Amino acid sequence: MKFFLDTADLDEIKEAASWGALAGVTTNPTLYSRIGGKLDDFHNHIARICEIVDGPVSAESVAMTRDEIIRDGRELAKIAPNVVVKIPTMVEGLAACRALSDEGIRVNMTLCFTVPQAILAARAGARYISPFVGRFDDISEDGLSQLGDVVTAIGNYDYTENTVGGEQVEIIAASIRSANHVTQSALMGADIATVPFGVLKKMVQHPLTDRGLESFLKDWEKVANA
Ligand code: E4P
Fold first, then answer.
1. How many Å from the N-terminal Cα to the C-terminal Cα in the chain?
2. Which residue among the candidates 78, 86, 201, 202 is catalytic per the annotation?
3. DSSP at 164
4. What single-letter DSSP state applies at residue 41?
5. Is 86 known to be catalytic?
C-alpha cells in the first residue's frame, strides 16, 4: 500500500516527506481553505507542493460543467507533470474525465461512494478512484465495507485500455479518520490510503513501542554506568 497525505499544508507535507514513506498528496477546496489559501494563489500553491513531492499531487476542479472542468483540468495539468486533476463523480465529471484522459491528463475521481460510481469512473478513464470511508461512517453507514466492495469490483476487471498510458487504475481509500481505517483498507487491498497528518502520526505510535523504548534506555544507562 502507498500513502498519500490529505492536506494542503506545506509544513505537514515537508515533515511527512522527511519520514520517507510519502508517495503523493491529495488536496481539496476545504483543505485549501483551511490553510487560508487565496484563489489567485491556488496554482502557485499546487506548484509549491509539487516541488516537495515527486509523486501524484491531486488538485481539484470546482467547475460544474464538463467544458469548464476540462478547461480547468488543462490549466491544472500545466502546473507540473505530477499534477492529477481531481474531479467529483457526477455526470459532467465523468464526461470531463473521459476527455482529459484522452488528452493524456491523469484524473482522480473523488466523492465516490458506491460500486456503480467507481465502475463508471474506471470506464471513463480515471487513473485514480477515491471512495470515501469516513463520510459513510458519519451517517452511520459502514464506509469500510463499501470500500471493500469497490476494491473487489474494480479488481474483477481490466480497465487498462481506458487509462492514460494503459496504466492500472488505483483505488485511493479516502476520508480516512483513524489508523484502523488504514489497517482495514490495506487488508481489503486498497492501493493507496490518503491520510490526514494527524492519522499519519497515530500510525507510527504504539504504547508498547513507547514502553519498550523506555526500558531499553533505562537498561542502557545501567550499561553506561557499570
Ligand atoms: C480525498 O481525496 C479527500 O480530500 C478527503 O479524503 C476528504 O476527507 P474528509 O471526509 O475527511 O473531508
1. 45
2. 86
3. G
4. G
5. yes
